[in-house]
From TrEMBL:
It comes from Pseudomonas benzopyrenica. Pfam families: HDOD, tRNA_edit. Residues 194-394 form the HDOD domain. This is HDOD domain-containing protein. PROSITE patterns: HDOD. It comes from the Bacteria.
Length: 464
């Protein structure tokens, strides 16, 4: 922690919590909440419900709440309460987040027995940037009416395959056999029953590798797909690009506003993204798929321009990687529909953990693995395959590392502002150094995205 952070005054503990802690006679010490890895002594609080009623569940933050174990332990089909119901509880006490205090919700409480192994615990205070440190012996007294159990999975023991893509096909096929009754075929795309590429996507891919392709060629391809043509024109006419005059045609959008490179990668990203439909089920309070895609691509474009000119990646491919970075999410929903719902419920109950940990625990693979595998099946550029496959590993330094490194940086910056899904991880200093991006410049790029939020929201609104 920096000296500046140490010198910053701590926010106040919410009055309702101060009053409750005084009634409980629980001594505490306020400490700042910082971005870090999940901790064994930080209490993860989840409010669940079913037809019987609500249940407060407490476990160490560095453990994954396994809902299947919870079913075995309680005999109840519990799921995270609806956001509206939780919001009513928080508003009643004027809180931002729910502290791990059973008497606050007046509902039965279940806690993982390993929670009490640490000598001191960190509780949510109700204020996002503030934690409460308490003695475990004192906290134990609050749990006298609660039930102890063992239903968490140590997250450190769940090891997603971050760096061995040569194992991806075997792991994906294993997951497919374990979770479907389909006969295993020789080819990956047949096994997963992925739809073929659209004619538009095939034409755009051919243009991408044609060194002699012209604006006319691209305009002709886009115009054969009326929906895509309308989106490209709307894109160019949006406030985000602030183009002078009216955009009258696809060619006008390419020449005057967007440029050949952006349009060809935008067209490809949109065509691929619409190959698979958005899942009907999703985790509560998730950032919508297309919003996450567009914000990430836009931020990556800014971050890449902040790099020294000689070290910048190919801008179009960097943008395309951002647009497709979460494509594996759509693939998981398509390949494992009955189990995708289970993934969503676990994402809701384990917001302190990255999706890779949850997906690997439940399926044995991650969206990064399956998304990259499909990109390779579709013969997409190796830069895009690498971008999707290694985006979750900030330490990746292999070939074309700049593409996944930029996605990791953009995703974490966005998560820090509440855009995206999952906890914001600390961004390693050596990642900034390898990309040759000044952290202050990166924050400046993030602020530009936030400043253009209304315009980006309008772009996102085109995708439903």
């Amino acid at each position: 922690m920096t000296d500046v952070a140490l010198a910053s005054p701590l926010p106040e503990v919410p009055p309702s919590i101060q009053q409750l802690l005084a009634q409980l006679n629980l001594a505490y010490r306020p400490v700042p909440a910082t971005t870090r890895q999940p901790q064994a002594n930080r209490v993860h609080t989840v409010l669940l419900s079913d037809s019987v009623g609500m249940l407060l569940v407490l476990l160490p933050e560095n453990q994954l709440l396994d809902l299947r174990r919870l079913v075995e332990f309680t005999g109840r089909q519990l799921a995270v309460v609806a956001p509206e119901r939780l919001m009513r509880t928080l508003e009643r006490y004027e809180l931002d987040v729910l502290p791990g205090l059973p008497s606050l919700t007046n509902s039965p409480c279940l806690y993982d027995e390993r929670l009490l192994e640490a000598p001191r615990l960190l509780l949510e205070s109700g204020e996002r940037s503030l934690l409460l440190e308490v003695e475990t012996s004192d906290y134990r007294c609050l749990l006298s009416q609660a039930t102890a159990g063992s239903f968490g999975i140590p997250a450190a023991g769940i090891q997603p395959n971050l760096r061995q893509p040569e194992r991806d096909e075997a792991e994906i096929l294993h997951a497919a056999t374990a979770f479907t009754a389909r006969r295993i075929r020789q080819r990956l795309e047949e096994t997963l029953e992925i739809p073929p590429l659209s004619k538009t996507a095939e034409k755009v891919i051919k243009l991408r590798v044609d060194p002699d392709a012209t604006v006319d060629d691209l305009a002709n391809v886009v115009e054969t797909d009326p929906a895509l043509a309308a989106q490209v024109i709307s894109w160019a006419a949006s406030p985000y690009y602030a183009a002078p005059g009216k955009i009258r045609s696809v060619e006008d959008a390419i020449v005057r506003v967007l440029g050949f490179d952006l349009v060809i990668n935008l067209a490809l990203g949109l065509a691929l993204g619409k190959t698979l439909s958005l899942p009907s089920d999703q985790a509560q309070q998730e950032t919508p798929y297309w919003k996450q895609a567009i914000y990430t691509a836009a931020l990556i474009e800014g971050l890449a321009r902040a790099m020294p000119r000689a070290e910048r990646p190919e801008m179009g491919l960097a943008y395309l990687g951002g647009l497709l970075h979460n494509f594996g999410y759509l693939v998981l929903a398509h390949v494992f529909p009955p189990h995708f719902s289970l993934i969503c419920r676990h994402l809701e109950a384990n917001r302190q953990l990255d999706h890779q940990v949850i997906e690997h625990h439940l399926l044995g693979i991650t969206r990064e693995q399956i998304g990259a595998a499909l990109m390779r099946c579709w013969e997409m550029p190796e830069e895009v395959v690498t971008a999707l496959r290694f985006q979750g590993d900030p330490a990746y330094q292999g070939e074309q590392a700049v593409y996944p490194n930029l996605i990791f940086l953009a995703v974490q910056l966005l998560r820090g502002e509440g855009i995206g899904n999952g906890p914001a991880q600390a961004i390693p200093e050596d990642l900034y150094a390898r990309l040759n991006i000044d952290p202050a410049k990166a924050r400046e790029c993030m602020q530009k995205i936030l400043g253009a939020e209304a315009a980006l929201r309008e772009l996102t609104g085109q995708f439903k």
